[in-house]
Amino acid sequence: MISPTLNQAHGHVYAGRHRMRMIARLNDEFRSTFEDGPVLMTARVIALPVELRSAAIVGVQGHTVFAQDDDPYEEHDWASFELGGQHFVWTIDCYDETRTYASKNPCDPDITTRVLTLMLAADF
């Protein structure tokens, strides 16, 4: 199940290896700490038992292995996993400071707000 994130939909796919590595590093830092950006959950995730929801969040933060299926653009901005009988998906999108438009440069944390969304595959 590969789907382009906001980053890829706005042309950042063809940005070059150095740029992709920089985006991946910034996405990894955000995903592992949840600092400097919001973390959203869909209604289906919020409706899950708190223990399962907490375990899913820990799973997202601890995710370090990206397969070609989960990360074809090598930006570490999308993955899926199974937990407690549920199929989870998370994405990171890079917006401008107002979270209105895609970031013009997701390599620049001063003008980029990263947003992580945790959802069930059924929400996707």
The description of the largest β-sheet is: 4 strands, mixed
Secondary-structure element series: HHEHHEEE
Give the oligomeric state: single chain
Percent of residues in helices comes to 25-40%
Low-confidence stretches: none
Structural summary, described in words:
31% of the residues lie in helices and 22% in strands. It has 124 residues and is of the alpha+beta class. It has one domain. The protein has a 4-stranded mixed beta sheet with strand order 1-4-3-2.
What's this, in brief?
With 124 residues, the chain is α+β, with helices and mostly antiparallel strands.
What labels describe this entry?
alpha+beta; globular; 4-stranded mixed sheet; 4 helices; single chain; 124 residues
Helix/strand layout:
Layout: H1 6-9, H2 17-33, E1 39-41, H3 43-46, H4 50-62, E2 78-83, E3 86-95, E4 113-120
Parallel strand pairs: 1-4
Antiparallel strand pairs: 2-3, 3-4
